[in-house]
Known about the structure:
This protein is mainly α. The chain is 83% helix and 0% strand. The chain has three domains: 1-67, no CATH class; 70-182, Receptor-associated Protein (Up-down Bundle), CATH 1.20.81; 184-247, no CATH class. The relative contact order is 0.06. The model is unreliable at 5-22 (pLDDT under 50).
Amino acid sequence: MRRGAVDRRLALASPGAIGVPAVRKDDAALFGAAVLVGWAVARVPGVFVGVAAAAVVRRIRRRRATAVAPIVIEERFADAVGALAAAVRSGASLTQAIGYAATEAASPVREDLTHLVEQVDTGIALHRALRSWADDRPTPNVELVVGALELHRRSGGDLPAVLDQVAGAIRDRVSITREVRSLTAQARMSAWILGLLPVGFFAFLWLTSRRDIEGALSTPVGIACVVAGLVLELGAFLWIRKLLVVD
Length: 247
């Protein structure tokens, strides 16, 4: 009992229990590196700029960590269509099959199918609920599934086979997308390197030859050259990224 009381006291005194967020090691390393680099480059102003940049990077990293990639959403959507086909093949009605697919699907597909079932349960006709879903999610995959379901409602047919073909088409599209990304990975990395290399070289010159850099930035011609170089670098980066887009 005494040990249990001590454990409870320690739990109450922990940072998570009193609402203080735990400090992650990668965040501490990020802000520490930002402070050191900022102090080495521009002393106190550099520290403020470095901390602000680290905060932006930290926010972007957390947003990307919680976000679901579009290609992953397509894979989950294909799995949901496969579950829908399996439920229809087992004898379930279309509404019951959609509900079963909603329980088997992962987020965010699960939320869309659950909302679709809730609309039908509240008395909305199935074709209106499907059209509302297609309007809310105007993606090729949703349009394909909604078109298949509406066609089956009007003229009948082998719906499980059609849904299996739809799921197979989505999986083939995902496979092609992954193959294209793997083939263009080197070019995308080259774009990032070419875009960041001048910035890194400028930072290196600022650390090693600050007097020369300050002399260049003290004249209108020097500032114009730096700005023109940055604009050209940005244009080249965007141009390379545009070349890598495969429709």
